[in-house]
């Protein structure tokens, strides 16, 4: 069984090859050309390079996802004494039932977990059994009809919640000003949590540094080096944080105070903007504050992205502008916005009032 997954594990493991620096997989030093003494040595070195470039083919986030899916699939195959590759359509149907009845996964999760079977077969040069298979599609349709396909988005961050959070932070503390700055960056920038918070070790050139913050006469601009939709350094994206003088939710004021803390302690320009603030530390503190204030919503990193996008929609911002600010390449932004029921009533009432009385 182990030999069947070797190609896949090479692709999704954390790279240990020379040239890996954690920034989206690898870097390439064009100054160090391959040296070789014979054709066999050249072949070996080129083969090593091919493995390195394959390992860089997926982002670290995608690799983590596939590692989780692979572990689940391996466990299932061990329980039923099945080979991972090749895998029959009948066994795929059994795996789908396993994901529903044993793992209690949602429908969308089940569909995603089938991806590892496709990739395992492609990595081993074997035709994958899922695409276009009538039997598998019928089982998936049955699962969808049985358990539903409703997807509940993250709880919305709102201006009211932001004010509660601010009231419970000590903005004279560097740790708390980091948390407050992160809140406003996520809300105003419609940011994914991975864009402004690190989940593990800080990674230079990927996580936001002090030098990525630029002063503007109307506030500050934060330059993102890497996002989910910009993984090949083909362009940089700017997060605009306006100055709203005297407003409790002014993001420029928070960034100004944060920079003041950094400069006071002599921080270098390549130091992390949010110090050592991790995703887990941030979310834990935010939810702790909300719980202590009897707020029932459980906040996640995506709460800021959804909340900001929904507020943009509420104030009448155009769809195209919401997509631009949130860096959406498709209409996926629609899953992040939530139309307020009172706004729908207002629109329908306007519709009714415009009708002729008789």
UniProtKB/TrEMBL annotation:
Q: Where is the signal peptide?
A: 1-19
- Keyword tags: DNA recombination, DNA-binding, Signal
- SUPFAM superfamilies from the entry? DNA breaking-rejoining enzymes, lambda integrase-like, N-terminal domain
One term of GO molecular function: DNA binding
| UniProt-recorded name of the protein | Tyr recombinase domain-containing protein
What InterPro entries does this protein map onto? DNA_brk_join_enz, Integrase-like_cat_sf, Integrase_recombinase_N, Phage_Integrase-like_Recomb
**Origin species:** Mytilus coruscus (Sea mussel)
Q: Which PANTHER family match?
A: INTEGRASE_RECOMBINASE XERD HOMOLOG, PHAGE_INTEGRASE DOMAIN-CONTAINING PROTEIN
Return one Gene Ontology term, BP aspect.
DNA integration
